Amino acid sequence: MEIKVLEKSKTKFGFNLIGEGHALCSVLKKELWNDKNVSVSGYYIEHPSVGMPTFMVESKDNPIKALEDAAKRLKKKNSELLKAVKKQL
User: Fold this and answer.
1) Cβ(67)–Cβ(13) below 8 Å
2) Which run of H or of E encompasses 80?
3) Which position among 21, 31, 66, 70 has the lowest Cβ density within 10 Å, counted as fewest Cβ atoms?
4) Domain of residue 60, residue span
5) Phi (first) and psi of residue 47, to 5 degrees
6) Per-residue pLDDT tens digits for 37-49
7) Is 17 helix (H, G, I), strand (E, B) or coil?
8) pTM for the whole structure
9) Residue-averaged pLDDT of the chain
C-alpha cells in the first residue's frame, strides 16, 4: 500500500490510496466517522477496474492524527476478530 498526498493542510488531508480498493476504504471511512473531531470522511474511485481511491479527511484537529487513531482502532478490532476465530478452531 502506498499513499500519494494530494492536499495537506492543518484541517484537511487528501490522498490516493494506491493498491487498495473499496474494502479497506469503506472500513476506514466508517471508522473515521467515530472520531468526534472529523467533519468529512469519504472516498471515491473514478473507474472500478483501473481507478485508485481518492480519500479526503477533514478534522477540527489534525486529520493525519485522526487517520492514525482510526488505523489503530481497526488494528485492535482485527486482533479481536482473529482471537475469536482462533477459538473456533
Assistant:
1) yes
2) helix 63-87
3) 21
4) 2-87
5) -135, 125
6) 999 999 999 987 7
7) strand
8) 0.88
9) 95
Maximum CA pair distance of the chain?
Answer: 47
Rounded Cα gap, residues 21 and 23, in angstroms: 6
Q: List all residues 6 or more positions away from 57 whose beta carbon is below 8 Å from its beta carbon.
A: 12, 13, 14, 32, 38, 40, 41, 63, 66, 67
Please, is 49 exposed, middle or buried when counting C-beta atoms within 10 Å of its C-beta (0-12, 13-18, 19+)? exposed
**Of 44, 35, 33, 39, the residue nearest 11 (C-alpha):** 39
Provide the domain count of the chain: 1
CATH number at residue 70: 3.30.1360.10
Cα 12 to Cα 47: distance, rounded to the nearest angstrom: 24
